[in-house]
Amino acid sequence: MRCRRLPAAVSAGLTTRLTTRLALVTMSAVTVVAVGFTATAATAAAAPASPGSGRVGHGKETLKIVATEPGPRHAPVYATGAFAAKGYFFRKRANIIFPHGKLAVHRQLLSTTNYPPDLAACTFKAIQTGTFQVFYATGWYRHVRYSGQFQTTITGHLKKSGHDQCTSKIVSYRAVTYEVGSIP
What sign has the CA pseudo-torsion 67, 68, 72, 78? Predict the structure, then answer.
């Protein structure tokens, strides 16, 4: 599938196919990873629990999820703050699984910003923001209930097919999500 160059008056050279494809990639990224950014205003300055201590501290908690391809693969998750752990995101059930327990997270997408693709470099970018709530947890985290905000930044490259022309084939993809909240 080739992108045809259109007059500048037609949305900066975007084709309907390319725009549709990028919208689908953006929507699938929400499903793959939707965890986020922006810290809550009043986060406690309590000491975080050390990794492997078997307890969860109080205060600011940040989860970082990095997906390097769209689809069902499990993206790695890094937790820092009130507790420190490394795990993965299980997309089918929207769970974050750590070695000593898991968190079930409900997310609400509030906005999506799609930037027009750069046809010279064949790159695309989208940003999604919203809120989240940890409503269930097991293991070491069984009493953890908190909420906050998230931001996901999706970037990627499409295959180049000529001067200012791109195909719809995704060559590289990266979705980085920050989820920040405060554990009471």
Answer: negative
Beta-carbon contacts of residue 25 (< 8 Å; ≥ 6 apart): 70, 124, 126, 154, 156, 170, 173
3-class secondary-structure state, position 163: coil
The per-residue pLDDT for range 115-125, each reduced to its tens digit, is 988 989 999 99
CB-CB neighbours of 136 under 10 Å: 14
- DSSP for residue 4: P
Q: What is the pTM of this model?
A: 0.69
Return the SS3 of 27.
helix
> Burial level of 79, CB count in 10 A (0-12/13-18/19+)?
buried
Query: Could you give the CA distance from residue 177 to residue 47 in angstroms, rounded to a whole number?
Result: 24
**Maximum Cα–Cα distance for the chain, whole Å?**
61
pLDDT tens digits, residue range 97-109?
A: 999 999 999 999 9
Q: Which of 159, 115, 120, 110 is nearest to 19 (CA)?
A: 115
Question: How many other C-beta atoms are found inside a 10 Å radius of the C-beta of residue 134?
Answer: 21
